[in-house]
């Protein structure tokens, strides 16, 4: 299968690298030239789960170097760049190209659908974790299940075939029709952990080791839970308990928003706590804690 990874940072490199290692025809696309040059010169240096090795995979920057349509585009840019990345790669998206988003937060599939139409979009969540160590070198830090679903319409054979290809490549993937619940379940964790760790400049575990930060986590997640209830979404877990469990299980980790702020990069705040605020406005549900977290992160970004 001809696969293009659009945004080949931490996650894109892990997914693209494993698929290439297992015989798929993969191209890694990224605007970060240093990273792409390192991959083309030495191979992708992948470490962590699966061991330390170099994978032979082609990188391009920008997408213009690819001339033909691909079978599958995996979008792995951070959410603020979804629109520009997909528009910039529109020449590789033909009428049979599937487009998959496993990005965090809400609204990415909708943004892609505005450009490509909704019928070929696959939306999902992944419980894999990855860290970019240096240009050309990425750590596969956590192995977990990926769950996908068609964004619009019924599950069809091609989606099942795609899931099989990923599973065979060492990325266990399941097709489900309840992905909305899983997206919100994951959103709850990001709502409780990401912005708070970025504002407080602390690892995830700190939030549950201190009374005041634990309360803030709880208030932010309970606001989001009210929105789920109003939308009729039945979460799989108690969201506060689940968020605290994740913070404990990943106590030493620094969230992606913490890392974005530390590197003065635009964060995914609008797609996480900001999405909760937007949904709250539509439903008439106040979300003052999430609104404050959004403003705090924006205030940090404005100072870059
Ligand atoms: P990342 O910042 O490491 O990688 C994103 C890459 O996109 C960067 O290398 C950047 O240069 C590139 N990019 C930006 N604009 C581009 C464009 N127009 N065209 C091509 N490339 C472009 O991010 P990540 O950690 O891999 O996260 C990607 C997504 O996956 C996010 O939504 C994140 O929340 C989600 N996610 C991450 C993890 C994780 O452990 N890292 C886990 C689950 C989900």
From TrEMBL:
Annotated ranges, domain Ketopantoate reductase N-terminal: 3-152
The species this protein belongs to is Acetomicrobium flavidum
The protein's name? 2-dehydropantoate 2-reductase
Q: Which residues form the Ketopantoate reductase C-terminal domain?
A: 183-301
Pathway of action: Cofactor biosynthesis; (R)-pantothenate biosynthesis; (R)-pantoate from 3-methyl-2-oxobutanoate: step 2/2
Q: What is its EC number?
A: 1.1.1.169
As for what it does, the entry says: Catalyzes the NADPH-dependent reduction of ketopantoate into pantoic acid.
Pfam family example for this protein?
Answer: ApbA_C
Q: Which UniProt keywords apply?
A: NADP, Oxidoreductase, Pantothenate biosynthesis
């Amino acid at each position: 299968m001809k696969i293009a990874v659009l945004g080949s940072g931490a996650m894109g490199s892990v997914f693209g690298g494993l698929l290439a290692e297992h015989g798929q025809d993969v191209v890694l696309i990224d605007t970060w030239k240093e990273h792409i040059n390192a991959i083309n010169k030495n191979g992708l240096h992948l470490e962590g789960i699966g061991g330390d090795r170099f994978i032979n995979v082609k990188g391009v920057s920008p997408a213009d170097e690819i001339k033909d349509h691909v079978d599958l585009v995996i979008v792995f840019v951070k959410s603020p760049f979804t629109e520009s990345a997909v528009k910039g790669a529109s020449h590789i998206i033909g009428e049979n190209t599937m487009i998959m988003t496993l990005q965090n937060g809400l609204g990415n599939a909708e943004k892609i659908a505005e450009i490509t139409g909704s019928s070929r979009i696959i939306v999902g969540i992944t419980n894999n974790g990855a860290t970019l160590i240096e240009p050309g070198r990425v750590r596969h830090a956590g192995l977990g299940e990926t769950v996908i679903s068609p964004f619009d319409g019924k599950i069809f054979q091609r989606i099942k075939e795609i899931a099989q290809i990923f599973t065979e490549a060492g990325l266990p993937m399941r097709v489900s029709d309840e992905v909305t619940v899983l997206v919100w379940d994951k959103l709850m964790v990001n709502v409780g952990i990401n912005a708070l760790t970025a504002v407080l400049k602390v690892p995830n575990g700190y939030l549950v080791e201190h009374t005041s930060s634990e309360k803030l986590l709880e208030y932010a997640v309970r606001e989001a839970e009210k929105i789920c209830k109003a939308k009729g979404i039945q979460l799989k877990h108690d969201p506060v308990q689940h968020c605290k469990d994740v913070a404990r299980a990943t106590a030493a980790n620094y969230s992606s928003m913490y890392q974005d702020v530390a590197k003065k990069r635009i964060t995914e705040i609008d797609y996480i706590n900001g999405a909760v605020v937007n949904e709250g406005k539509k439903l008439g549900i106040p979300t003052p804690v999430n609104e404050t977290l959004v403003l705090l992160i924006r205030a940090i970004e404005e100072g870059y």
